[in-house]
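I am writing to request your help with a piece of structural work I have in hand. I set the record out below, with my sincere thanks for your time.
___
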Amino acid sequence: MGISMAPVYPVGAPDIPPDINKEFGVCWHLIQSRHHGFWYNFLAAFPVVLFLAFLLVQSRKSFQKLLHGRSYVMTTYYAFIWAVAFLNLVWFLLQVWPPMHGKAKVWDFLSLIVSFGIVMLEVSVVVFLSQGYVVSGSDALLRTIIFSSLVATADTFIKALYIYGLGVPLFLTRDGPEDQRKWIFWLIRSLVFVGAYLFILLLPHTKWRDRLPARPTFYRYVVILFVLNVLSAFGHTLICIGADFGYCLHGLSTFFYNGFYPPLLYATFLLDYFMEDDLHLDDIYYSEMKDAGYFDTWD
């Protein structure tokens, strides 16, 4: 995920000095958690809560389909869907209850855990689907989990190095002008993800096009994340050069990613599987009813 998590202001910190209020614009104040009320946080978390409710309502049917299909891959990614939705909900709860003054390191640690899980899931979907979408490929699943775990671990290690080693507040906002290293980090990270998704989008026009799946949902997934990361990178660029509007783009891309990534992941990876399974189950039920003689009186 090249998109950063929204910065949070520690509770108990002193008020922002008047000269800082004059120096920074509307967009800078918009992304500060101390300016977020209950309804702001409620509306921001609503897509995630709604999707979790959808998963809960569909859970019985989903479990039955997964048990009948006996696909380790789909079962694993269904668990991943729950995990990423829960992690996003945790992330929004962290926004509602920002860290008390003096406990920022604990909050940073929780943020690192949440971002690790989300990055691992995002990378794993791309890596697995790029192998041809073999629903019974347990070996492909294992390779995918190992690779995505390594990527997420490296990403988390670099973040931890910035936070705990260099003292750069990647997830927190401080009084006064912020450390430019923070936004340069997020800019470079966004550009890395932009490059990765652009590479995937260009592959169908090369001699390696047969290595990617021919599923439209896969490319829609890549296009959406490419656009979000471009938006994020552009926002971080504006922030680095001192343009206040960059904070608005940063906040917008962060909201859309954290709010709508779980449904996007579900639509990309599991929706078709469950729809196909519905048709298959209907055929099975029809055959069982026919064998039991339910339709004999119709002849």
User: Anything to note?
Assistant: Residues 8-22 have pLDDT under 50 and may be disordered.
